Amino acid sequence: MAQANGASIQSVYNAVVNLANKDQQGIVNISEFNSFAQVAQLNIYNSLFDELKDAQKMSRASINPGRDKSRIKRIQEDLSYFSKTQTVSKTSGTFSKPTDLSRIISVSTAGSILLDQSTKKPVELCYDEEKIERILISNLSAPTEDFPVALVSDNIHVFPTSINKISIRYYKIPEGRRESNGLRTNYQPSYSSQNSAALIDFELPEHYISDLVYEIAKMVGLNLRDADIISYTGQEMLTRKQSETL
To answer: Using an 8 Å Cβ cutoff, are 171 and 82 in contact?
Structure first.
């Protein structure tokens, strides 16, 4: 599946500046804007998980449009962009979490494909120290290589201890992406008035431009109306699309 374009840092900055001028708030400091941009993206990213929980509750109550209009499907598609898989080997008895980990999706043993069948085994995740102790001493639920268990704390502790390699599927911390090639970077979204090549777009998809403008504008202290946000962000997206076709 082709990845969505990242929300343009240029478009978001222009919209915030225009809103600031309309609200007579003066110049938006670029370094201040960049620090707000990082927080705004993280706020929206975290809110997606809350939205997903709400949508799942509505679905269980049979209040959720189907197929392409499904709220759950839309949020899952947006979150899938932040999904990664990393194989980790044991070090000093434990497995280190990925440095860009935000939330774990699942953990499995790092198996292989044998006769078109995967030898990976799902690892049950436990976040409770007391519960893992009860599991380990139980004659009925003690972990085995076929039914492993992991305690997730500062690191990941997998039982039985004979397992030396695991595969972690997780949601990464949102970062930035360069507009010129669309590649992910280890940098945060950043605007520069001096060097267009230094612009780093948001990692959130393009359809979150309005949300980003709204979040940053609140931090700047602007008095907002929905009509203003729609007007300015819509114009910025139209201007960008026109420049891309030239």
So the answer is: yes
Tally the domains of the chain: 2
Could you tell me if residue 184 is inside a domain?
A: no
Whether residues 164 and 92 fall in one domain: yes
Q: Please check whether residue 74 is in contact with residue 86, taking contact to mean a CB–CB distance below 8 angstroms.
A: no
145 belongs to a structural domain = yes
End-to-end CA distance of the chain: 27
- Give yes or no for a contact between 13 and 33, defined as CB atoms under 8 angstroms apart: yes
Own/partner long-range contacts of 43-48 (Cβ < 8 Å, ≥24 apart): 43/215, 44/204, 44/208, 44/211, 44/212, 44/215, 45/82, 45/102, 45/174, 45/204, 48/75, 48/78, 48/79
Q: Which of 180, 171, 226, 178 is nearest to 202 (CA)?
A: 178
Asked if residue 39 and residue 102 are part of one domain, the reply reads: no
Looking at the fold, whether 141 and 221 belong to one and the same domain comes out as no
β 83-89/165-172 pair status: antiparallel
Q: 87 with 167, same domain?
A: yes
List the pLDDT tens digit at each of the 246 positions of the chain. Answer: 445 578 999 999 999 998 888 867 667 889 999 999 999 999 999 999 999 988 887 777 666 555 555 788 889 999 998 999 999 999 999 999 999 999 999 999 987 767 777 889 999 999 999 999 999 999 888 999 999 999 999 999 999 999 999 999 999 999 987 655 556 666 899 999 888 778 999 999 999 999 999 999 989 888 766 556 666 666 665 565 555 555
SS3 179: coil
Amino acid at 22: K
Parent domain of 62: 9-78+195-245
